[in-house]
User: Fold this.
Amino acid sequence: MRAVRADAGRGRIAKEVQDAIRSHLKDYRFVSEPKTLPKILELVNGHCRAHGWREISISTLRKFEKEKTLKEKLEAQGRKKKVADAFRPKVGHLPNNDYPLAIVQVDHTPIQICFVDEIDRQPIGDAWLTLVIDTYSRMVLGFYLTFDAPSTLSTGLALAHAFLPKEEYLRSLGVPGEWPCWGFPDLILVDNANELNGHMMHGARRRYRFTLRNRPVGAPNFGGHVESAFRTFMYELKSVPGTKFSNPVERGEYDSEGRAIFTIREFELFFTDFLVNDYHLGKHTGEGMEGTVPYLKWKQGIFEGDVMPPVGLPERPTDPLALRISLMPFERRTVRSGIVNMFSEDYHSGALTLISDAVDLNKPLADRKFEIRYDPRNISRIWLNNNATEDYVELTFADLSKGPISLWEHNARKRRRGDPSAQFKDQRYESMLRREEMKEKAAKRTKQQRLEDEKARLRAQGALMKPPRPSKPLAKPQKTQLGREQLDALRKKVRPAPVLPATRKETDHES
Assistant:
């Protein structure tokens, strides 16, 4: 049988070596820029050799590192976020999240599917999904798909889809089932992206009386509901032809572009059917979702009540077009002579003339500007918010020969036309150099003249005899013009010249 060590439970490493190991770990491992254990082992063994001590092994160094817990090690390395994600408790629920539309979360994610175009059905890349979800019931209130990066437009259209009833939308797509979600929330929880905290969102907040709140920076668990929905969708989309999977390693040799089949409109139909007839009716985990599904949870909060009494059906928006317009991007412009200039284009309407005449030009410029809403997908018409009536006035191109055009195509045309002044940039640059040289020469001459004048003044002050002052030149007599009466008076004072007798030649000539 194996003998029992006499020093069982006690280390054989000398105390000074242990102190050196712990000191090196503190200086090189438990810092913000930690070294690897093999590098630290070289430093420790070098220190031991210098003092004539016995070297240690890598396993011994690992045992000493484990004297600190993982949490203490991460905190010493300054990795606070990882500590919070790994060790902070996730229990609890969002406060006041006790009824439908109490709290809504909005976020964006790329769709990991390669899409094809609608004409040639050739692969063109992936798209972005903007999602609006109710945190009480986990019902998706609305969404928007686009090839463009997240923007104010995609956020506004997703919110408009969430606020409006869905019956007509499902009927237009031909999707069976119910999607009984509409109405304005009490609180919208967003991250710190610009498109979710811009003027459009704050304008909608004031108009529809909801609260807009940012998630704490570096705390993704505050958006857990929408993030969980994204994970569910991405897992479901792995079975769709053309998927890109979660990462290149998982994708392997799969040809995403070669197997792509969906246009973005076809995928919108596919995704809507999945939401209405699968996701909303499927089992969900999480607080408050035991024994129910999102569809039933929503109806329970509306008609029966849960923690709170039933809230009843939300108010249906009366003017869907005005709601969509109010969630579009906007800029502020003045109205002059019945014309609004925007995107280097003039817009006009008959009603705009009356608004223009009522503008008080004595007010500051900021008070004379109007809110102009526009749809980047078609800038041939824009909408002016009449401050007096809070209605939207539709404006069209003043030049009726121009047709519909998107903002992206409009900007592309401007870039293609280029800058007409670019062909003269060398000439303008040379002129600029000449003008700078002229200014320098004029400044030197002025400085030199001032210096000479100052020298002459100082010489005159120090002279024994003051130089005589230069005499002023006599003023030249000014010519005055006489009037008619003065001329007649002068003629009367002048005597007429005597008449001389005529000579003989003149007399013969006259005869």
